[in-house]
Amino acid sequence: MLLEKMLQSQGFGARKHCQQLIKTGAITIHGEVITDPKHKLNLNDLVFAVHGTQYEYREKIYIALNKPKGYECSHQATHHFSVFDLFDDVHLNRGLQCVGRLDQDTTGLLLLTDDGQFLQALTHPKKHVPKVYQMHTADPVTPEQILQLQQGVELRNEKGIFAATDAEALGTHQLQMTVHQGVYHQVKRMLAAVGNKVEQLHRAQIGQLNLTHLNALPEGKWVYLTAEQIALAKYRAE
Ligand code: URA
C-alpha cells in the first residue's frame, strides 16, 4: 500500500493532508524518515511514527471501554459527555462507532469499532449475543421476580417475550442476569415489568468477554482487543 493511502486509512486526515505530513518529514517508518507519499509499504507488523508518536497499522479497530457514568453513546451528546470524547481524532476519523448502546448512567463494558461487519454480528437482533448485567435495585429482589424474569416479560411497544437467563440475586438489592436481545432500556424496563426498579446498572460481559479478561480495566479507560478477545465477544454471533 502507498504510504499516503496507509496514513489516510489510519485516520490521519484527507489524502492531501497526509501528503503534506509526509513531505514535511513528519513520518518515520522503522526509524527512517520517509518523504515520498508514493513509498510502497508492506503492512505486516507495520509500526510507524507521526511527529514522533508511534502507531501500529490496524486494518480495523476493535476497542473495549469501561464506560463511566455521565457519558452518552452518541456523537452529538446533548446533556452529558460523549463516549467519543474519550478518543483521539485518529479514531474518530476512521468512523468509530459504538457496538450497541449503554444509557448515560450505565457503567461497564462497551465495545467500539470501525468494522461494520463486526458491529452487525454483535448487534443484529437475530444473533442473540448474551450480555451480562449487574444492578442495584430500589426494592429487595424476590424469588418471584427472578422467576418472572426467567420466564419472560412483555415490554410495551416491543414484539415478543424478554427473558433473562442465569438471573441470580447477589444481595438483597443486587441482581445479575443475562439478556439476549438489545432493545431500548431493556434491563430497566424488564425490572420495571416485575415491579422493581434499577438504581444502578453495570454491564460486566458481552458474549464471553468480560472486564476481568481485560485486566479489570479502570473506568474511563480503553484498550484495543486482541484477536482472542474479539472471538470471545463474538461468541454465538456467527
Ligand atoms: N438495558 C438498559 O436498561 N440500559 C442499558 O444501558 C443497557 C441495557
TrEMBL record:
PROSITE patterns to which the protein is assigned, alphabetical: PSI_RSU, S4
Broadest EC class assigned to this enzyme: isomerase
Keywords: Isomerase, RNA-binding
Organism of this sequence: Acinetobacter celticus
Catalytic activity annotation: uridine(516) in 16S rRNA = pseudouridine(516) in 16S rRNA
The protein's role, per its UniProt record: Responsible for synthesis of pseudouridine from uracil-516 in 16S ribosomal RNA.
NCBIfam families: pseudouridine synthase
Protein name per UniProt: Pseudouridine synthase
Listed CDD domains: PseudoU_synth_RsuA, S4
Location of the RNA-binding S4 domain: 1-64
One Pfam family per UniProt: PseudoU_synth_2
Record-level GO BP terms: enzyme-directed rRNA pseudouridine synthesis
The protein's Enzyme Commission number: 5.4.99.-
A single MF term (Gene Ontology): 16S rRNA pseudouridine(516) synthase activity
Domain of life: Bacteria
Annotated SMART domains: S4 (SM00363)
